[in-house]
Amino acid sequence: MARPTRSDLARQIRGHLELLQAGGLSHVRLKKKSGAAARKAPAPPAPPLPATKAPSPAVKAPALVARGVMAPSVALEELKRFGGERAGLLAPLAEAVRVCEACRLCATRKQTVFGTGNPDSRLMIIGEAPGADEDQQGRPFVGRAGALLTDIIEKGMKLRREDVYICNVLKCRPPDNRNPEPDEIAQCRPYLERQIEIINPSVLLAVGRFPAQWLCNSQEPIGQLRGRRFEYKGRHVVCTYHPAYLLRNYTLDTRKKVHADVMLALELLGSEPVVRR
Ligand code: URA
């Protein structure tokens, strides 16, 4: 297969961004094409599930590999399996995230971690940022903290993990699992905003300080935010401790608090099925 040139790659990235705009994301600004380029440009397609082709993995482009641009999108494959209108709207967003270079984290990630689970879910769980396991696998909450989150969902809430939509405030792993920086959260913000807008969950469950402060627009510590009901653009918000914190502080007190928080989330979900039919 022919080696793509820089302008091939630039054109592909522009194509992803145009799809993203077509999907409704308003913060992406593309320069207008100059006269000749604009005349040559084909009309931008806006299919619900774009048949975007990743650059060939046979091409040696170490910088792109390091940024995860060459990694096939795990999220896109899963969205294709789910199908439906919300999956169709999420797909171009997942593709834009896959090639995102808005902040320094693109230089150290293996791949982006967009989100997983049913896009028609009425419950969305939001964590902080991918860790090493998530960076490796391209899915949120697959490490030790993820195993505990799965138990909380399945044993505590009596829901199936695949019926819940799970994602993070940041789509890329901060190196050495350090805390997200404010500018990284700000750059990633439009992606999560749009995910919430498309999925339109009834209840948002924030696990940990960063998603809790993001959703509640507050600087209060998680200990103050948990146990209460907040609102984000007309949707219920419940905050609880991060499963990694729970693993480090596995006491009766913290377990009781997390249990009370997830019961509040369930109560706010009400009696309708967690997945919209
Ligand atoms: N911690 C998070 O906040 N998110 C993940 O995806 C994994 C661990």
CATH homologous superfamily grouping of the domain at 116-269? Uracil-DNA glycosylase-like domain
**Oligomerization state of this entry?**
single chain
The CATH architecture assignment of the domain at 116-269 turns out to be: 3-Layer(aba) Sandwich
Structural class: alpha/beta
Largest sheet: 6 strands, mixed
Shape: globular
Q: What integer value in Å does the Rg equal?
A: 19 Å
Helix-strand string: HHHHHEEHHEHEHHEEHH
Please report which band the strand proportion falls in: under 5%, 5-15%, 15-25%, 25-35%, 35-45% or over 45%: 5-15%
Given the structure, what is the number of helices? 12
CATH topology of the domain at 116-269: Uracil-DNA Glycosylase, subunit E
Small-molecule components bound: uracil
Q: What's the end-to-end separation, in Å?
A: 43 Å
The beta-strand count equals 6
Mean pLDDT: 86
Supply the CATH class of the domain at 116-269.
Alpha Beta
Low-pLDDT ranges: 35-60
What proportion of the residues is helical, as a percent range? 40-55%
Describe the structure.
The chain is α/β, with parallel strands linked by helices and 277 residues long. The chain has a domain at 116-269: 3-Layer(aba) Sandwich (Uracil-DNA Glycosylase, subunit E). The chain is built from twelve helices and six strands. The protein has a six-stranded mixed beta sheet with strand order 1-3-2-4-6-5, sandwiched between helices. It is globular, with a radius of gyration of 19 Å. Bound molecules: uracil.
